Amino acid sequence: MNRSYYWLILALSIPAFLWLVPTIWMVSLSFQPNDVLARTTSTTALGLIPIPFTPDNYIALFRFGQVPMWFLNSLIVSAGMTLAVLAVSTTAGYALARLDFPFKGPIIVLCLMGLMVPEQAVFIPLYTMFADWGWHNSHHALILPRVAVPIGVFLMMQFFKAIPKDIEEAARIDGVGWLQIFWHVMLPLARPAMMTLAILTFLYAWNDYLWPLVSAQQREFFTITLGLASIQSNFAQAEGLGRVMASGVIASLPVVVLFLVFQRYVVRAMTAGGTKG
Amino acid sequence: MPEHQGSRRALSQRQAALILLLPFMAVYGLFLVYPFFKGVWISLHDWNLMAVAFNPDAKTYVGLRNYERVMWGRDITWGALANPGFQIVGFLGMVASYLLYRSGRAGRVTALAMGIAALLLFVLPGFHPDAGGRWFDRRFWPTVGNTILFVGLAVPGVTVTAMLLAAALDGETRAKAVLRTLFFLSQVLSVTVVTLIWQIMFSPRQGLIANLTELFGGSPVVWLTAEGFAMAAIVIATIWWSLGIAMILFLAGLQDISKDLYEAGALDNATGAKAFWHITLPNLKRTITVVVVLQIILHFQVFGQSHLMTNGGPNDTTQVLVRYIYQTAFRDSELGRASAMAVFLFVIMGAFSILQFVLGRETEE
Fold it and tell me: Which of A31, A220, B105, B167 could bridge A50 with an S-S bond, Cβ 3.0-4.6 Å?
């Protein structure tokens, strides 16, 4: 730790601050009165400090409008998708990693090929299928397509493969069945991997845009991400810039809190999701 | 603790595997494998969204006609300089990948992949309609070109910035950890929040950038509706958004470089920028390839930035492939043609995914 180290930190603080400016600006604008913003956005320090200050945008957001409903939809969809992905990925991941059965190799290859199919290559047929079944504008329509993406199965499979065999064998000698081993021995061991997968899925569900845009056409079934897109095109006229920015802050709050609290897991989840899927 | 009930009704390993695999395989088959083949099937039909919704028999089998209508035209010929911008880049790319391979700076797989990509970039843009001919779909290839341009700007932008930041922020001190957090933060935001922020950042009347230019006496640029600036604007927003993962991958790559190398380098007076150029960069080759391939896959699927910030405009200059697929399907109701484009997208993405898989395998070994 010498002089050049402190110079480096100081020199990097400037780009780091600039990197943060757009986010600070969003938060700052969300606390300013709409009639002021209609005239100018650079009141104090280019608008980066919220003076004049008002919490009205947030109060209005929760009193009128659909933001609370969209927020709730996002919570339901993200939580539902996370639980469903955890359920199918841990079970299938364990079977593929530790059990022996016919056609295991081909099944793994079949699942691997699913990683190559981008969402955009299947969203049209999925739309027609769900339309035929009358499934659009529902929570399960927003959840199910992502549960089929095999990334979680691979994360869990890799994790279970790394667990030493003797734990399992000791239980087998005691006459414990495979399902009990999975439930009582393997799942408790898999908590860190499940946490990573849960965060990866939750972030994806919360931020997904294309599929909700196609599937949810009634505003009552918008997620917050989709709802935010629907109000940002006419931000200046209709609702007031401050209120739209407040919606943006509300939409970001859960993922930012998740990131700050579970930073290690989030970083691991996003790199795992990025490199493998 | 589990009770001893194995003797009562023990499931065989096969039965247990079946029970555990069934939920996932059912969902996978129904919502991924089946839709994939159905997508290919739709692409072989003249399939109007509205007409088929009311009458399931309103579709007609047309074979590969949709692909022809999207990608081909009347009197198409090929010329080596029909589209000089892309073709010169492609030609230089082919030369570069050969030279990199010969000099040992790039591995066989990397050089081959680069060479094939460059060859396609040289060959494909060379096709153009003759004097009397025309494309059946005037917008498809320009849209693909825009997507490639977007990828070509965003990927190097993200990669270089992320690599420099990672090299500077590698280390176990608290200050560096805080700085890493700040740079990663924007990565967790959704695309609609990112476009919301940047749409207003770039706004000529209310934007922070316009306010800054006015402060220094300049006249604000109409970023999102000016040709030439619109693409730059969505690339800037994208770099701001997606720097984090690349930075983390580079930080992981830096962990694998032995500290001895730097100590040996320090003896030869190689520190700072010199050490970065002669020690860090050559040892990060593998990571750079992984990051680049990953970013290509990610950014080729760009949709939100173009859809929300510029509406594909001005004059179609930021229209990208996924947005064109979306519009063809859900605005024009032409599911057949849209599906043909989706299959085209799948082929490109699939090629890069295989490359990513092969590279991943090589790293593990």
Answer: A31
